[in-house]
């Protein structure tokens, strides 16, 4: 679990940034400005974003097309904690949860009145302004905030900016009923510098190969939640959500312009009962997830010309699940769950054929955990998970052709692991090994355009392991590190024994943090990621995708606390901070600067209590 304090000390500026120091989790930034990031859990390479479920307060935000998850719609300043669940987790989280789940919990209001404002500046003309107000009493609590971020980016033509406004209010009507309303709007504009070959990177890794490509997006969502706690009779939650997402991609270098607009309605009730069976503790969870998305998109040769192609799709998913956690003995827990999900997609376009597709699938999970001391456990589990195709995996956008033979993916896997907490909670170690067999994994076959399409691959196997550790050596020194290994390969067909492209085998991270008594902190972090390669064509023989490592070193000064911000490849930090990116052993980014404003908490006892010590 990653807490709000962990996020602050890491300098992360997005959810993927906060995951960079975890062994076994691969983060790539396709644009080099933090505005097109992907997270790989389980070794799925190019399609990694379609194999990780992203959940915010119980609401899944994965797209129904092949576009990456819009992490910009989740202001990291508003995150209370991030939970990671590795491996197949389709029982509770449905499709896409084949490689893992990123479960994000945002902040609630706090008793009293609290607020802060922060201003940051950095190299590449980067600026960031944030403000937040949190308040609450016995009956009502709220949390509202705003973020404005602008940068010219590390690479040529990688300018980007985003504006986010968010808020959540909760009303406690009775001792058993609470009603909350959550809203968020994020608008972003960004340039697209394009991918580089190895030769181009060696020549000038800052260069842009796309001289006019750019995009913009706007994401609005609203969530109404009812929480009813019936004490010994259980707890019932009902989550009602609406999302309106619009994105425009002007790919001038490819003579393609896309305008996407889709609305999603979600209905998610969940009932949880904690009781006793035969004198043993038992937790029963029953729930349903329903999402209905209307997808409307246009394409044409450019923004200025007539939009020639029209796509209008509708996708409905309905999943029901049940999971039970039963204490076989005082320290031995059995977990058993299953899920059935129905998938309906209507594919329409102005280009060619139309089609209605209906599929369904089961998922299951069986696990056992032995808790040998508080916070420490050994566990093992087996699972089956699934993923349904995206609308533009079925349909080729350039021609409107629909591959009706495309099947959904399924996986069966096993996982064993351990967690140890010791030395008065000063030491935390997490280790896991996994293997899963995947049937009908989906990938693009052919050159982009007419003649190519997404197809099901032969059987593949994804296996590996990871080890992460944190050690609070003294009140001053905190050590951390991790290592991950992933082996993803074909196990049948003409590619039997070959590696799946764009899956790095090794990742390591190590660092330390010094927390001085005055409140100042010093953090050093190093990440190493092995090369991942993909053979494209004979003209472009090998393209190396390298995620640079990150070093963050902060020198002490006689101030209360330093806050530094970093969105790779943009890093904002005080002038006494040394920040370098190391790629192929060569540093490539100089020091940057940051200043912040001090805020004060307001409450009935003291109206001038500093709550956010800063430079």
What does this protein structure show overall?
With 615 residues, the protein is mainly beta. The chain has a single domain (2-612), classed as Maltoporin, Chain A (Beta Barrel). The chain contains 5 helices and 37 strands. The longest helix has 7 residues, at 4-10.
Short précis:
With 615 residues, the chain is mostly beta strands.
Using brief descriptors, characterize the structure shown.
615 residues, mainly beta, Maltoporin, Chain A, 21-stranded antiparallel beta sheet, five-stranded mixed beta sheet, 5 helices, 58% strand, globular, disordered C terminus
Write the layout of secondary structure elements.
Layout: E1 2-3, H1 4-10, H2 15-18, E2 25-29, E3 37-41, E4 52-56, E5 59-60, E6 79-86, H3 90-93, E7 100-106, E8 112-122, E9 126-136, E10 140-151, E11 160-172, E12 177-191, H4 198-204, E13 214-229, E14 235-251, E15 256-277, E16 280-300, E17 309-329, E18 332-347, E19 355-373, E20 376-387, H5 391-394, E21 409-422, E22 427-439, E23 442-445, E24 453-456, E25 460-472, E26 477-490, E27 506-515, E28 521-529, E29 532-534, E30 543-545, E31 549-554, E32 565-567, E33 570-572, E34 577-583, E35 586-587, E36 599-602, E37 609-612
Parallel strand pairs: 4-7
Antiparallel strand pairs: 1-6, 2-3, 4-5, 6-7, 8-9, 8-36, 9-10, 10-11, 11-12, 12-13, 13-14, 14-15, 15-16, 16-17, 17-18, 18-19, 19-20, 20-21, 21-22, 22-25, 23-24, 25-26, 26-27, 27-28, 29-30, 31-34, 32-33, 34-35, 36-37
Q: Bin the helical content.
A: under 10%
CATH topology: Maltoporin, Chain A
The major pleated sheet works out as:
21 strands, antiparallel
Shape: globular
Number of domains: 1
| Relevant CATH superfamily | TonB-dependent receptor, beta-barrel domain
The span between the termini is 28 Å
Unreliable runs: 534-615
CATH architecture: Beta Barrel
Number of helices: 5
What is the average of the pLDDT values? 84
Name of the level-1 CATH class: Mainly Beta
| Structure summary, number of beta strands | 37
The amount of beta strand, in percent, is over 45%
Q: Any idea what the radius of gyration is?
A: 24 Å
SSE-based structural type: mainly beta
């Amino acid at each position: 679990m990653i807490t709000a304090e962990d996020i602050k000390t890491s300098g992360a500026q997005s959810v993927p940034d906060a995951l960079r120091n975890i062994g076994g989790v691969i983060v790539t930034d396709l644009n080099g400005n933090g505005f097109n990031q992907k997270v790989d859990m389980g070794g799925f390479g190019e399609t990694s974003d379609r194999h990780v479920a992203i959940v915010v307060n119980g609401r899944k935000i994965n797209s129904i097309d092949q576009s990456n998850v819009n992490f910009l719609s989740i202001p990291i300043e508003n995150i209370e904690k991030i939970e990671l669940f590795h491996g197949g987790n389709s029982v509770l989280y449905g499709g896409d949860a084949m490689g893992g789940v990123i479960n994000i919990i945002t902040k609630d209001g706090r008793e009293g009145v609290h607020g802060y404002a922060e201003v940051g500046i950095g190299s590449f003309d980067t600026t960031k302004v944030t403000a937040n107000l949190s308040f609450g009493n016995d009956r009502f609590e709220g949390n509202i905030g705003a973020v404005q971020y602008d940068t010219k980016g590390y690479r040529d033509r990688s300018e980007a900016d985003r504006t986010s406004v968010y808020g959540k209010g909760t009303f406690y009507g009775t001792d058993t009923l609470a009603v909350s309303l959550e809203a968020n709007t994020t608008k972003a504009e960004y340039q697209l510098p394009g991918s580089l070959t190895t030769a181009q990177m060696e020549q000038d890794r800052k260069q842009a190969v796309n001289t006019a490509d750019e995009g913009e997006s706007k994401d609005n969502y609203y969530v109404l939640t009812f929480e009813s706690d019936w004490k010994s009779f259980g707890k019932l939650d009902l989550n009602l959500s609406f999302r309106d997402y619009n994105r425009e991609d002007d790919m001038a270098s490819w003579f393609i312009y896309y305008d996407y607009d889709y609305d999603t309605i979600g209905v998610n009730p969940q009932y949880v009962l904690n009781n006793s069976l035969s004198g043993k503790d038992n937790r029963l969870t029953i729930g349903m997830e329903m999402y209905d998305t209307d997808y409307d998109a246009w394409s044409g040769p450019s923004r200025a010309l007539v939009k020639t192609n029209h796509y209008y799709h509708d996708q409905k998913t309905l999943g029901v699940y049940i999971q039970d956690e039963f204490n076989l003995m005082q320290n031995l827990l059995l977990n058993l769950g299953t899920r059935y999900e129905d998938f309906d997609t209507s594919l329409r376009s102005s280009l060619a054929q139309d089609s209605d597709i209906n599929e369904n699938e089961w998922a299951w999970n069986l696990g056992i955990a032995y808790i040998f001391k508080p916070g420490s456990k050994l566990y093992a589990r087996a699972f089956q998970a699934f993923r349904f195709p995206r609308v533009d995996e079925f349909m080729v956008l350039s021609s409107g052709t629909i591959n009706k033979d495309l099947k959904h993916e399924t996986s069966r896997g096993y996982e064993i692991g351990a967690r140890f907490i010791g030395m008065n909670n000063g030491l935390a170690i997490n280790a896991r090994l996994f293997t899963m067999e995947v049937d009908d994994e989906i990938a693009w076959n052919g050159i982009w355009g007419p003649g190519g399409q997404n197809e099901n691959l032969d059987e593949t196997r994804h296996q590996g392991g990871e080890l992460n550790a944190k050690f609070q050596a003294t009140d001053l020194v905190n050590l951390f590190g991790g290592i991950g290994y992933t082996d993803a390969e074909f196990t049948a067909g003409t590619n039997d024994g070959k590696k799946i492209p764009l899956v790095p085998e090794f990742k390591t991270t190590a660092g330390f943090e010094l927390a001085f008594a005055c409140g100042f902190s010093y953090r050093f972090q190093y990440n190493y990621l092995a090369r991942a390669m993909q053979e494209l064509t004979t003209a472009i023989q090998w393209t190396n995708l390298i995620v640079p490592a990150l070093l963050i070193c902060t020198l002490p000064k006689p101030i209360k606390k330093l806050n530094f911000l970093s969105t790779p490849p943009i890093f904002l930090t005080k002038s006494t901070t040394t920040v370098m990116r190391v790629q192929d052993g060569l540093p490539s980014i100089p020091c940057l600067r940051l200043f912040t404003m001090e805020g004060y908490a307001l409450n009935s006892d003291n109206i001038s209590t500093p709550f956010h010590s800063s430079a």
